[in-house]
Design brief:
Layout (H helix, E strand, L loop, with lengths): L1 E5 L6 H12 L3 E5 L4 E4 L6 E4 L2 E2 L5 E4 L6 H13 L3 E2 L3 H8 L1 H10 L7 E2 L7 H7 L5 E5 L8 E4 L2 H13 L4 E5 L7 E8 L2 E9 L14 E4 L4 H14 L3 E9 L2 E8 L5 H7 L3 H12 L12
Parallel strand pairs: 1-2, 1-6, 6-7
Antiparallel strand pairs: 3-4, 4-5, 8-11, 9-10, 9-11, 12-13, 12-15, 13-14, 15-16
Helix pairs in contact: 1-9, 2-3
Length: about 300
């Protein structure tokens, strides 16, 4: 197969591992910066150009699109879909997962367990909004934040009001969620490929920190998940429309709840913690499923 990997840096661990895994299995892999692509919109012959040449002959595309370039990155991916190239994750699924509010609404509609979550526009609703998530301590999240950025733990009512006022002053959209104290600063990252969980790790926040992201000094170790958790994370990925996803869950007193569904999960932490060849499993999924024009939306979403 000829595989396009949409990534801004070939040296990133996840990107380089995917290139390595593809080439080890006899495929041709090309790293393409989506921001350097430009497109010809045509009803009959859509085209993508990169470095002055048309991109042709690709069988599959792996999107590794950063949150800061979601709009243009998904536009490029949509163009590949219109050209009949099989996407590892479709543009529609990526767009759904990047909108925290939309993704939580979709999951809730399908009965997936979530932390108590509140969202409002008017500052007049702050008191009732905090009551919806059982008051302080509570977690305040920017809707467009990633890797723990824009996530604040407000331990008191006054602290929560101050953060909310600051975010509203910046005209930022945010969510309020219950603080799950019993989790002890730990959550589980489950890597879903197709209809199964390929790997899972427990992420533990460093002392004095409640965010477990490895980028923020958290540690990772292999973990066994329950059959119920396994079913939940696979369903969550499928609801988003993602073939490959990192689904984050937290164990609470009222069961495991889904925190987020990530459409471009990093491979370094989970490969290091579990010793599993996740990149190879992703390429194997493409080998079994990549067919020309085999997308649910064909770029129409």
């Amino acid at each position: 197969m000829k595989i396009a990997i949409l990534s801004r840096k070939a040296s990133l661990y996840s990107t380089s591992r995917l290139v390595e895994a593809a080439r080890e299995r006899g495929h041709e892999a090309h790293v393409i910066n989506p921001l350097r692509c430009y497109m010809k919109l045509s009803a009959h012959r859509p085209e993508i150009h990169f470095n002055g040449q048309a991109l042709t002959g690709f069988d599959a595309v792996i999107p590794r699109i950063g949150a800061s370039v979601t709009f243009y990155g998904t536009a490029v991916l949509r163009q590949f879909e219109m050209m009949g190239v099989f996407p590892l994750n479709e543009s529609v699924g990526i767009s759904r997962s990047r909108d925290k509010l939309r993704s939580l609404q979709l999951l809730a509609r399908k009965g997936i367990g979530l932390p108590l979550t509140g969202f409002a526009h008017s500052p007049d609703d702050t008191d009732d909004l905090m009551a919806l998530v059982d008051g302080a301590p509570l977690v305040i999240k920017l809707i467009e934040g990633t890797q723990g950025k824009g996530v604040v733990l407000a331990e008191t009512r006054n602290a929560a009001e101050s953060v909310i006022d600051a975010f509203r002053g910046l005209r930022a959209q945010f969510l309020l969620q219950e603080f799950i104290k019993e989790a002890g600063g730990a959550d589980l990252r489950c890597l879903v490929i197709g209809d199964r969980v390929h790997a899972a790790m427990l992420r533990q926040a460093k002392e004095g920190e409640f965010r477990s992201n490895i980028h923020r000094g958290g540690s990772a170790s292999i973990v066994r998940i329950t059959p119920e958790e396994r079913s939940t994370v696979v369903r969550a990925a499928q609801i988003m429309g993602l073939n490959v996803a990192g689904v984050d869950i937290m164990r609470s007193n009222h069961g495991s709840v889904v925190l987020e569904v990530n459409s471009s999960p990093g491979l370094e932490g989970i490969e290091g913690a579990t010793g599993k060849d996740v990149a190879g499993a992703i390429i194997e999924f493409l080998e079994k499923n990549a067919e020309s024009g085999k997308t649910r939306t064909r770029g129409q979403g």
